[in-house]
Amino acid sequence: QVQLVESGGGLVQPGGSLRLSCAASGFTFSNYYMGWVRQAPGKGPEWVSDINTSGVNTYYLDSVKGRFTISRDTTKNTVYLQMNSLKPEDTAVYYCNAQTVARSYWGQGTQVTVSS
């Protein structure tokens, strides 16, 4: 069955870094755009970043540009989100998403907390 399993979240101080991973299985990874969406406490979902099927084109929320980097490894069926210079406002549950025009899959989320 389809699975998206996120990992790499945790507690980090402001200015710190984390790398989120999302391991995909049960579908043809190379055919899917991959992305990350986050949801902060008491707020709605917020799109963070996408990467196209080839990995050449990437897209970012303005507030994370220059700090976050999305990448994908087709040999491992995994998408990554490298997060640097983290801020308290980055605190949220981060969800991995796989999508085509016809389908969309979601992971269970991983908590990222930025606090001193």
Question: Would you mind describing this structure in some detail?
Answer:
This protein has 116 residues and is an all-beta fold. It contains no helices and eleven strands. It has strands spanning 3-7, 10-12, 18-25, 33-39, 45-51, 58-60, 68-73, 78-83, 92-99, 104-106, 110-114. The strands form two sheets. Strands 2, 4, 5, 6, 9, 10 and 11 form a seven-stranded mixed β-sheet that branches.
Shape: globular
Rg: 13 Å
Taking the sheet with the most strands, its summary is: 7 strands, mixed
Task: Catalogue the unreliable spans.
Answer: none
Count of alpha and pi helical runs? 0
Helix content: under 10%
The run of helices and strands is: EEEEEEEEEEE
Distance between the termini: 40 Å
Structural class: mainly beta
Number of strand elements:
11
